[in-house]
Protein: Mannose-6-phosphate isomerase
Organism: Mesorhizobium wenxiniae
Amino acid sequence: MPPHKINLVEAADQKIKKVFNPHIAGDVNDAQVKIAKFGDVFDWHAHDNEDEAFLVLRGRIAIDFRDGTVELGSGEFIVVPRAVEHRPRSLSEEPVVLMFEPATTLNTGNAKSDLTVADLKALT
């Protein structure tokens, strides 16, 4: 049987009920493709040992850095290098964002809070 395809935005709308609650869209070697809806503002954090990539599928987001902000819209992509402190936030209502990172990456990195999700659910 061939692999199945998925419409990521439709699946996110159906399955993801809370903002900043990443789900696993797929596994690629030792990495995971994760998807989330973003809310008003996330925690300041860094990933000491992992780079983190963001691809906006719908809407607009900002990623704040201590020395400035980068705004991203649909189809735009950024890689946040390891150990760089950052804080994602939405600029539109519940944007849908794809993230690429090692499977062991914790969403809040080195900052533990109420937004930390250690046990991710699969999108499908």
Notes: DSSP finds one helix and nine strands in the chain. The mean pLDDT is 94. The CA atoms of residues 108 and 116 lie 6 Å apart. The domain at 8-104 is CATH 2.60.120.10 (Jelly Rolls).
